[in-house]
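User: Just a sanity check before I run the rest of the batch. Below are the structure tokens for the first item. I only need the designed sequence back.
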């Protein structure tokens, strides 16, 4: 069985974030944000890639696996069911499917992969939907990392 981790950086620090990835021996962080910008220091695309490189973790941005603008607006407004509907429609597009299959191939290669988005709670984030779509393609154990959250 293959494995996949998911992580959100909402409410965490760069050091706690990197520690959570290191604890899971993640080799590749796949950014599934449509727009890899952040007001949080250390989590915009360039800074994130640099922080990961220092930690010995590769970075890949698969923007077509991100939530479209109307879905992001729904998520910000707390309308998670609406965001899920919008994202699932987007995920059915050829462009998103191409990147989903690319991600599946990477996971099948045996690399320890984690997918990233902003939302701390995976139940409210589209990364859970990406993980479920991957589980329909292969036997996959998914672990949700929660840096900075006491379990």
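Assistant: Here's the designed sequence for the first item:
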């Amino acid at each position: 069985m293959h494995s996949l981790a998911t992580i959100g950086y909402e409410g965490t620090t760069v050091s706690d974030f990197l520690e959570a990835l290191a604890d899971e021996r993640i080799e590749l962080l796949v950014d599934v944000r449509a727009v890899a910008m952040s007001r949080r220091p250390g989590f915009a695309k360039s800074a994130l890639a640099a922080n990961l490189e220092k930690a010995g973790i590769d970075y890949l941005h698969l923007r077509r696996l991100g939530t479209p603008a109307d879905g992001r607006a729904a998520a910000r407004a707390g309308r998670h069911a609406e965001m899920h509907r919008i994202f699932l429609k987007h995920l059915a597009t050829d462009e998103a499917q191409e990147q989903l299959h690319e991600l599946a191939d990477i996971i099948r290669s045996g690399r320890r992969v984690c997918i990233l988005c902003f939302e701390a709670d995976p139940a409210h984030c589209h990364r859970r939907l990406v993980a479920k779509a991957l589980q329909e393609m292969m036997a996959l154990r998914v672990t949700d990392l929660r840096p900075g959250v006491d379990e």
